[in-house]
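Batch job 17 of 40 flagged for manual review because the log was empty.
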Amino acid sequence: MSEKKELIQVTEHVYCYPHEEERDRPILGYVRGEKMSLAVDAGHSDAHVDEFYAALDRAGLPRPSITVITHWHWDHTFGMHHIDGLSVANPRTNALLKQFIANMTPDYVRDFKAGEPSIALEYQNDRPMIVCLSDIEYEGSLTIDLGGVSVSVFDAPSPHTDDSSLIFIPSEKVLFLGDSVCGEYPTWKVDPEKAHALISVIEGLAPDWCLTGHWQAQTTEEVIQEMLDSIEE
């Protein structure tokens, strides 16, 4: 768990910091432009952000000016208070985070930390759990010009949550999917209608590479086949 991970370069301008199963940490995406850089997701805690930024520093890459959130779940957002630059999410993501914040009594936080081994491990030794909303909300879709590289952020249907945002880099043909391809937590049940709607979105974009939250880069065909298999199951 203490072993340093290094960034993985996916294309000329796109990288990712690898996922970790033990603490259920998702990949953190990174897109480098000529003027600024963008991250995908804010990680599980301030410690996760620090590890990501240390990997950027070792690679000689600038820290992100913008961090885009794929959905509200803790492992993707609870490091948001610790990022450099500004964060971006859709209004439903912020509404769900606001609801979580309203519930954060000491007893609730204690029980939440104890509810999953990965969360207990992330927040061991009394690490504080700090939850905040994004700095910027977008409605429907947003295009961000990083300088020579444009990033498209947009709402998408998902069997996982109702607040899913996808991040597509057209020039690189890379699509960040977050956990949108998964079933609903904690049952992992997949709604076939929502899954097929998401498959249609992915097919329409036709990316060369898809990055899901807790796995390595895959082709479009691999991701779609896995989704179809999950529907059949």
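Reviewer: the log was empty due to a logging misconfiguration, but the result itself is present. The first strand starts at residue 8 and ends at 9. Unflagging and moving on to job 18.
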